[in-house]
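Can anyone check this?
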Amino acid sequence: MNPDASTIAAGAPIEVDLSPIAEGQDIKVFWRGKPIYISHRTKKQIDEARAVNVASLPDPQTDEARVKSGHEQWLVVIGICTHLGCIPIAHEGNYDGFFCPCHGSQYDSSGRIRQGPAPLNLPVPPYQFVSDTKIQIG
């Protein structure tokens, strides 16, 4: 009774088991044909993201607004650069986040744009925790 591949590709929700993702590691899954980065952030990454003066950001948004309360260690973002749609590389750049090598945009460990031509933060897809170790995207 599972949906077929064409239904999933069209946007059916997907479930992702977080238990195999080690602290400091991230994975990439696909939802609606888009790459989704799921990062298991370290305490250092969370602290750095929360220490940023939000007013200094090109697209001001707090770290707390980008993660689920009680699950701050998990960052879920659509991995498409908001400049020209390239795919950034995780754990690269000056902010321990994402780096887009095509035009130099750099995002922090909260997926917020910090440097380069991208105008907006990496978007957060609709998702929810269905258990402590599993999320549903979509």
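Reply from J.R.: I decoded it. The longest strand covers residues 34-40.
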